[in-house]
Structure prediction request, 393 residues.
Amino acid sequence: MTDATELRARTRELLTAYPPAVTDRLDFLRARFDAGLAWVHFPEGLGGLGAPRSLQAVVDAELAAADAPDNDPRRIGIGLGMAAPTILRFGTEEQKRRFLRPLWTGEEVWCQLFSEPGAGSDLAALGTRAVRDEGTWVVNGQKVWTSSAHAARWAILIARTDPDVPKHQGITYFLCDMTDPGVEVRPLRQITGEAEFNEVFLTDVRIPDSRRLGEIGDGWRVARTTLMNERVSIGGMRLPREGGMIGPVAKTWRDRPDLRTHDLHQRLLELWVEAEVARLTGERLRQQLVAGQPGPEGSGMKLAFARLNQEISGLEVELLGEEGLLYDDWTMRRPELVDFTGREAGYRYLRAKGNSIEGGTSEVLLNIIAERVLGLPAEPRTDKDIPWKDLAR
Prediction:
């Protein structure tokens, strides 16, 4: 079993062989992956050493002390948090070796082709079709709210391969090359002025069967792995104390005593405590992940993330008064990452509105918590046993 002492030694060997100050960034990241220090809990040869997940912090601390480059995780969050664990669990050996290394180094950005105009909260009702044509699948349909599709080389995609069975049973999971003919990406301009989201049109896109992930018709089970990891990656991200949205508000409170009132003070204290509780709960969730796959707890974290961000950003705008209504730039941009703390309060307030939609709506997450955490009776569902083609649309 690899222990902390061995990991420190391996990390120092990497730093000696590839000094960060004089080594090309990409060369260093590739060497780190090959040394098993990317995800230490992944298998050997796939960026890891089969070590406990908790020991990743040992490697990260050594590399941070040496000022080594990271893989810019915010830019490639969909690949790291959603595609990678799904490929690891359901992919063939060939798929794992082809995709995991460039995914982790950031050479290939990933996006997620799940939601559709008529299948958002009810994702299993999706209508994008994949029809088999000998060794390939011909895909036609439309996806929406696709983060970073304009920057992505690859996408995780679910499509309907059998319309004659109930909706959850006729879905198959694919890895789609975003540069293939028939893939069209159009920007969706948001209330912030940016277009980090996109809609994606798929017209006779041919995907080889070798890029199918999991069995035919088993795509919903594969997708659930992606969704559980997505909610953990959004709601359970590692933050320092006063990290995230609460940080700028606390800083403004300390720097601007002229803005303070008793009522705002009380509300800030309540939200600060809630943010700290959420942060510590996220730490506990990551420790639970060491023992197995993410469960419905991630839904609770993501739900809290959305509510807190919206309440904190609203308090910040109110604290700043007229200044909070200012907005620095409405220019149409297509950013490759979302930076909640890098811009002004007005941006944070508007962007936080999407937190209760993206990564699973808050309403859906409440259902998951009620049924899978609290054990409450499920809501009546009249469409579970009806073939997808017979559903009312």
